[in-house]
User: Which sequence fits this backbone?
């Protein structure tokens, strides 16, 4: 059994990482516009105002805002069936609390969506991927404030109405469960405190962070409910950062540790978004950690009324956990969070474990849990590419990574998982979220730009471009 007919092969990006043009056409500043460049070993800095002492990569991204037509031609050449991108909230409502949307912003995404439709590429649209208008942070305290729910719903109403006939698949929030970690307090939650400076180590107040997440989940449910009233054919997906976990040993305590941590980190948000209520273990966690959730009866009803239709997730890696840290203390890095090192897995140059089999394991796990269609909306290898004198880029390592993951996807389909799409991350090179670097590249398409934003920004086809084109043309049969 292979991939189903109409399988959505494509790629994914986010506005703040690829668009550039951060001040064009009436766009307001977003949280991403005040996070500086960084590197693997020096964290990005959160500035709140645009401090001239720092460089801010959202200024240039990959110049996709101005070059989207050229990019769509390249996606078409690869045979893309789907393109996941995000609408930048701060282009539509520059201050977040504006009474009316910004026409220039709405017009831009209408042109982008129309171009995708003309090329038979299905848009998969993320509504919020670290692009909260900065004004909502300064004036309201970000997602801690329940008024922000209202502003988000106003934003969704504007785009749902305008793109009613152009979009089917919507993702209300990127990696909503990232909010379970302090690192996402600013970028996702819009939470800023004195001392909020380092992207990787932010001052943390779990009670307010969890309440901000609760407000995000309520906002998502209200948007879903409203979206269905606007167009019954809209389909809404979760977007979970799934950090697959294994016990480092077979001792029962390690199983329990992983069971509990996996429920909390990987399942809680999708349980709320697909089942419409907080699960029992969430309440236990809140009680044990002194978290008091502000959730009214009306909000509980909203969560029930606005559940999603399908499950999407990002998958880059797995980690191990153990209660025996003194014996198995080796740590590894990772996307959003690292963990105990798995001796059976290799690491990328940024220390993320590579685990294709874990993708099959995860697909079976989430499909068994929810029994709704599943889409992998991020996966890929961040690596340094060498640009040869003749303009070629030989990224065999990326082809190997993707091939091994697609092989496991195919096995999961054979296991019976209803997998409907695959949009690998950064299909065109873009700025890394965690480090702010350009040199950590994921794309099939090379962008001539460096970490400081120098370069022509011209596009070049990597070897993986031709390889993925063949994969799509054969619906995943030819992975050679
Ligand atoms: C995901 C995010 O967590 O990981 C993306 O949704 C991000 O925005 C991707 O770019 C890869 O992480 P990084 O840090 O390598 O850019």
Assistant:
């Amino acid at each position: 059994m292979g991939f189903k007919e109409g399988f959505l092969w494509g790629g994914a990006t986010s506005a703040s990482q690829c668009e550039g043009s951060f001040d064009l056409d009436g766009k307001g500043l977003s949280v991403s516009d005040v996070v500086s460049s960084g590197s693997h070993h020096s964290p990005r800095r959160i500035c709140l105002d645009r401090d001239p002492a720092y460089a801010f990569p959202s200024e240039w991204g990959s110049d996709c805002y101005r070059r989207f037509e050229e990019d769509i031609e390249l996606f078409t050449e690869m045979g893309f069936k789907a393109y996941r991108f995000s609408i930048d909230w701060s282009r539509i409502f520059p201050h977040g609390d504006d009474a009316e949307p910004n026409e220039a912003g709405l017009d831009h995404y209408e042109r982008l969506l129309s171009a995708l439709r003309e090329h038979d590429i299905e848009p998969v649209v993320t509504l919020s991927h670290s692009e909260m208008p900065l004004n909502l942070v300064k004036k309201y305290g970000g997602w801690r404030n329940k008024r922000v729910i209202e502003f988000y719903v106003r934003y969704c109403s504007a785009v749902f109405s305008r793109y009613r006939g152009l979009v089917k698949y919507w993702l209300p929030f990127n990696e909503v469960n990232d909010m379970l970690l302090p690192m996402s307090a600013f970028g996702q939650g819009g939470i800023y405190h004195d001392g909020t400076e380092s992207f990787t180590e932010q001052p943390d107040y779990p009670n307010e962070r969890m309440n901000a997440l609760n407000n995000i989940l309520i906002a998502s449910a209200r948007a879903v409910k409203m979206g269905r009233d606007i167009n019954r054919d809209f389909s809404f997906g979760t977007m979970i950062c799934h950090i697959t976990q294994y016990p480092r040993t077979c001792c029962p305590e390690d199983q329990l540790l992983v069971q509990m941590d996996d429920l909390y980190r990987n399942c809680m948000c999708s349980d709320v978004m697909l089942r419409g209520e907080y699960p029992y273990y969430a309440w236990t966690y809140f009680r044990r950690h002194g978290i008091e959730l502000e959730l009214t009866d009306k909000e509980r009803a909203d969560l029930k009324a606005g559940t999603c239709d399908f499950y999407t997730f990002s998958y880059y890696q797995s980690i191990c956990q153990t209660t025996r840290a003194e014996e198995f203390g080796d740590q590894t890095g990772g996307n959003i969070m690292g963990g105990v090192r798995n001796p059976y897995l290799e690491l990328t140059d940024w220390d993320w474990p590579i685990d294709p089999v874990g993708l099959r394991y995860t697909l079976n796990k989430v499909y068994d849990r929810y029994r709704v269609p599943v889409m992998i909306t991020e996966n890929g290898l961040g690596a340094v590419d060498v640009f040869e004198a003749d303009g070629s880029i030989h990224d065999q390592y990326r082809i190997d990574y993707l091939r091994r993951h697609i092989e496991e996807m195919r096995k999961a389909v054979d296991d019976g998982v209803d997998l409907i799409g695959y949009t690998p991350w950064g299909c065109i090179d873009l700025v890394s979220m965690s480090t702010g670097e350009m040199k950590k590249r994921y794309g099939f398409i090379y962008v001539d730009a460096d970490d400081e934003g120098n370069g022509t920004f011209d596009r070049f086809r990597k070897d993986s471009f031709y390889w993925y084109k063949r994969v799509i043309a054969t619906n995943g049969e030819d992975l050679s």
